[in-house]
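Collaborator request log, item 7. Partner lab (contact: R.S.) asked for a structural prediction of AB hydrolase-1 domain-containing protein to inform their binding assays.
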Amino acid sequence: MVNLIEAQKPLLTGMMRLAGLRPIDVELEPGTTMHVWAPKHHAGKKGTTISPHDASAAAAAAGEDAAATKKPSGGPRGSRRRKGPEAKPNVVLIHGFAAEGNVTFQFNFGVLVSRYNVYIPDLLFFGKSSTTDSADRSPEFQARCVAAALARLGVARCDVVGFSYGGMVAFKLAEARPDLVRSLAVSGSVVAMTDAVNRETMERLGAGSSAELLMPETLQGLKALFSVSMYRKMWFPDRMYKDYLKAMFTNRKERLELLQGLLDSNMDAKIPAFQQKIMLIWGEEDKLFDIELAKKMKEQLGENCYLQGIPKAGHLLHLERPCAYNRQLGRFLAYVNSQENQATS
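Returned to partner:
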């Protein structure tokens, strides 16, 4: 019997290709490959594989991109900037725990591709990304892999958008690589999933553990996850739930290890002093990470952090209210670019 969820993927793939994106397998090291949807100037129509041997060429391209963004020196010749698709700002979309990148951001990437070079990586053990070489399951490791993949693709500077688990990876990436990450837009996430935050969240939702909630094995468990993730109560036939379980919750052993890797045993984990502008875009009815947690996080992150709530939206706000989400994200990215243009003019 045809899996209805899998059957939709060719349509989504076609939409992404029409938007100018191509699938690329980036080999970070032997045994570790990250699958990335990237602008078509990186690949032919059938996609490609980028290996570590391509790193020097990519690094040179990244250096040229970085130089192109600097303030020009001198007259007309010095003011010439690099043209073509590489000249557009880069935006990286990092998905959450329930689905890979193209599924997560299927209603969002289309409004970005005309103004930005959009990159949508699948984190390790999601989609076609995997490793047989490393036992590290921390969000820091995921962040290092994203940074390495972007380096292979010649990306020297980017704005990062993270949702839920992807938001935690995005925070780690921004903390470790301020030279790479210009700004952050995060929804439904925290800087670090401490024991305290995890325990409070599970108690509030009545879940035994994060694994029980986020890695359901039954229809009832999946229905419970969707119930707490969405503001609107939506009905789907059981067949859809069954197909979703089979299609999306693969690599269970490794993903359970990723959940364990999220937990920070330090009860008093400190908020890093981020250099970047940060926008928190939040569903006001988010039951996983409520708006009060977002307000507290905004205060902790300081004056470079902004919070925009979206009413009648839950944890999956980018799917429930994509127009409202896209509007806020677009405004933030436009603001970040205008600030940099003023600084370099």
